[in-house]
Structures are given as C-alpha cells and as structure tokens.
Amino acid sequence: MDEGQKRPIIVKKVKKGGHDFHGGSWKVAFADFATAMMAFFLLLWLMGNASDEQKQAISGYFIDPAGSTLTPGANNVPIGEGGANTGVIQMPAPEIKLDDSSVEELAEENERKRLEALKLQLEQMVDTTAAFSEYRDQILLDITPEGLRIQIVDKDKRPMFDSGSSELKIYSRRILFGLADVLKQVPNSLSITGHTDATPFDLGNYGNWELSSDRANAARRALIRGGIPANKVARVEGFADSVLFD
C-alpha cells in the first residue's frame, strides 16, 4: 500500500449491554401502603382503649371538625396501661387570684341577688294567694343593708294586735303562717322586732318596751308554729315607739 495513501479513521460507537431499567416506583407505593397499614392498626389499638364517651367525641370531630372540640388536658385517648396520658398535652387551667376586697364584693353581690329572688318569691305569693288578698297592703317588703325586711303594719280597722295587747289577731297568725311556709326554705336567719305606737302606755312596771318585746315574741311563736325551725330565729327585740313605721 502506498505509504502516502491515508487510511480512513473508523469510529465505532459501542452500546454497552445490560438489564433494562426497571424503575423504583413500586417501592414508593409499597412504602406508602405499609405506612397506611401501620397507622390503621395503631388507630384500631387506640380505639380499643378509648371509652364510649371518647369514641363519640372522636367521631363527632371527623363528622364536624368545626363544631366538635377535644378538650386540651382531658383524658381523651389514654395510651398504654394505667391510662398514661403520653399522647395528650395537658394545659393547666388558668389560675385566677382575687384579693380580699374582690371576694367580699362578690359574696355581697351573690347575697343581694339571692335576697332579690326571695323578695320576688314573697311578692308573688302575696299577689297570687287568695288568703293574702285582703292583707296585701299590710305586707311591705324591701332590701336593707341588714337583709330582707318584712314589715307587717296596722291598717284602719285591721291592726295586728289590739291596743295594749300582745295577743295576735287571727288574721295576723294567717299572715305569719303563710310567710313561714316560704321563709323556712331559705338558709337566712331571722331577726324579729316588735313595735308600738307613740301612745303612752304604762301599767305599773309594764310599758311600751315590755309590750313591744312581747309582741315580737308572739310573732316568733307563730312563725315556729308555721314551720320555721326554732334555731333560725337569731334575735327577738322590742323597740317600743323609738322606731316608728317609715
């Protein structure tokens, strides 16, 4: 061959043999399936340890997430034996501190509301009970700093007592028996006071002071006969004519 003649250069592209590419998508799918099954069996295990009330709460949450709540810190789903709450974050209730004045004000407010409710109950009884219809204008109710004040006052031709007497009239007893039926249901103690008018009254050593005290005691006996426990009466006093009707 002529040395001056150039040989052609041949370039061969060699394709390496081997197995076809199979891909890894099935592995991802299998991993998702295994994870789902693990979560499913974990859910079954948790549901098996939950009470009926907790199951209803969980069911309600999935039916209406906006309308159902699982209370933080409550034993919603006990995990493990002994009810260990390892899967629930417990949120302590906020601590509210009240100073002495706030506690006292709150107690006074509650007592005032209770007295107002009692006053309303008595007013309704007086207005709706036939036995009180003719004595309605003799029973006066108001709330004072000392509590609920019930005044049974004299009216023309219908006094609670005869002049100079501590003996209750028949209708006076009826009024006291009716009041006792309501007052025996409340925890408050009773203070009973007796009064007289300003007319001078003196029978030796027996005057308006003694008379007013005896009238208060007569009212006490009538209330007890009406059902008031004797230990609910805290005080019985006579004021003679020193505190007139206002």
Provide a descriptive summary of the structure in words:
Residues 72-87 have low confidence and may be disordered. The chain folds into 2 domains: 25-83; 100-238, 60s Ribosomal Protein L30, Chain: A, CATH 3.30.1330. With 246 residues, the protein is of the alpha+beta class. The chain is rod-shaped. It is built from 5 helices and 6 strands. A two-stranded antiparallel ribbon has the order 1-2. It has helices spanning 25-49, 52-63, 100-128, 170-183, 208-225, and strands at 139-144, 147-152, 190-194, 202-203, 206-207, 233-238. The longest helix is centred in the middle third of the chain and has 29 residues, at 100-128.
**H and E order:** HHHEEHEEEHE
Low-pLDDT segments: 72-87
Shape: rod-shaped
Q: What's the level 1 CATH class of the largest domain?
A: Alpha Beta
Q: How many structural units, i.e. domains?
A: 2
The biggest sheet, with number of strands, parallel, antiparallel or mixed sense and barrel status, is:
2 strands, antiparallel
Structural class: alpha+beta
Second CATH tier, the architecture of the largest domain: 2-Layer Sandwich
Radius of gyration: 45 Å
- Write down the overall mean pLDDT: 77
Overall strand count: 6
- Helical amount: 25-40%
N→C terminal distance: 151 Å
| Biggest sheet: strand arrangement | 1-2
Number of helices: 5
The CATH topology assignment of the largest domain is 60s Ribosomal Protein L30, Chain: A
CATH homology superfamily name of the largest domain: OmpA-like domain
Strand content bin: 5-15%
